[in-house]
Amino acid sequence: MKTKILFGSAIVVIIIATLGGGFIYLNDEDESTNKNLVVAFEPQIYHAEIGEWVSKMNVLLSKPMNDPKLIKAGNDEGFEYYLKSQVVNDESPVHLIRAYEELKEDYINLFLLTSYISNKQAARTVHLGPNGEAIESTDLVEQWAPTDENTHKAFEYMKQIMNDLDVAINHEGKGEVYGVTNILNGDKASEVKKFVTSS
To answer: What does pTM read for this prediction?
Structure first.
């Protein structure tokens, strides 16, 4: 009984310490030190490029995309999800993220969601070219299969994760969150994990 109480108290202290911490940006001009770092929840330190990427991707996922390919595809929703997921994946500073254990689980979930959306776009067009030739063939958009419900769900999770990461990394943990990230001990993080591992 005493062990359970102590363990529970330790968890409460860890959560309070984690959520009560703040962030500061450091811009040290000395090249020999860690330049452009974001310090978060002592002693965690994040490279500023991670914060910039999270902020940029949060905006990208939250607003309509202005891409000539998307316009040519008649603003097909599933194709927009696909294009956005490509940007999230292609621009991610994975070489920096790998250094931070507490970010890995959320990044893996993001990577699996972007891969899932890409695979779904391939599945929508496979009947037009078995080797992926029609994935971005916007002239064939009328022949693409419809976007399924799980693709919508995958995009929503991706959007929500990026929002929560933005709040955690760039806004001192203050702001509206969906509870889908591990870094903020979100109550829906396990729901996301179940989706990405079972889909």
So the answer is: 0.77
